[in-house]
Amino acid sequence: MSFEKLGLSENSLNAVRRKGFEKPTDIQKEVIPRLLRGDNDIIGQSQTGTGKTAAFALPLIELIDEEIKEVQAIVITPTRELAIQVADEIRSLRGKRRINVLPVYGGQPIGPQIRNLRRGVHIVVGTPGRVIDHIERGTLSLDGVSYFILDEADRMLDMGFIEDIERILRHTSEEKRVLMFSATIPREILRLARRYLKDYEVIRIQDRSLAPELVEQIYFEVRPNKRFSLLCSILDEKDFYGIVFCQTKRETRELASKLKTKGYSVEALNGDIPQKGRERILERFRKGKIRVLVATDVAARGIDVKDLTHVINYSIPQNPEAYVHRIGRTGREGKRGKAITFVAPWESPKLRDIERVARVKIKEMAYPTEYGRRKRDIPMVS
Questions:
Q1: Which residues face 337 on adjacent strands?
Q2: pTM for this one?
Q3: What is the distance between the alpha carbons of residues 61 and 43, in angstroms, rounded to a whole number?
Q4: Class of the 3-204 domain?
């Protein structure tokens, strides 16, 4: 199927061509026609990196009335980085339409956001806390919102934002359409849907594994005191470009510091770093000036960097949803990637749970047969 058959205008088709999109992804094939022509609410389940943003952005651009200078659509994202990214993607797809898109998020002065809102904004993309802040200040009215988009709903749940989402929803009209997008659909998301969505349909793109098909998934059973040496051997692979996930902010700082002393091109990314500093680090990472990013789940949420070769779970994810989102940073846009998880001997039950819920098979890799170039420096994993 081509984009021409989805019901998009010539303006949107030209924007798609400029972006270099050749044919729609599965989620785009399902969502675009439904949002353009239907009236049902939608829950869309699709892997990370499958074009979910364009799936709702392209129809929104068609449906927004640019002559009405009020907020007609709002997109809620779990993190600042994702809010910026989604806003940029919508702008890149609007073509010649004069649609104003504004990201609103914490960590930056609220004054410029208020001034932009007063000038007239059609689409707001924001994090829950800052959206609520604007609502309570009276600087953001959702009375005219016709489209409410919840992006990465399962991460909203993990990060404790569901009450905030419900609070925002109560400020919107009953006549709006609601779309939720998520890599996984936990029971809590369905409960939220039953409470706030009208006639909705669930679109599930993946039938089997929730993980990206082009990601090779392996794990090492390794004791914590041996993880660093094993990590260094993996980072020494030719053209390594990836993210190393840790559980805590402190661990990201300590690990990045140790890697820097070894000469690796690395930076830590965590919630303690001011927003401008995080944006600078991400920009350097996107340009390849940093080859290794050591991050927490929250800080790395919404990172969309092309051509990442690896994701390394230095700390095993807390749940299967976090695993799916982490490894979705690689294996995107037809490129292959590798996801490597370090598992302590006592963490095997957690690994089995990830495999069962995410419907994946993670292959055990024996060290040092696969990563043996530095084996004189690395003790045998035990």
A1: 215
A2: 0.65
A3: 20
A4: alpha beta
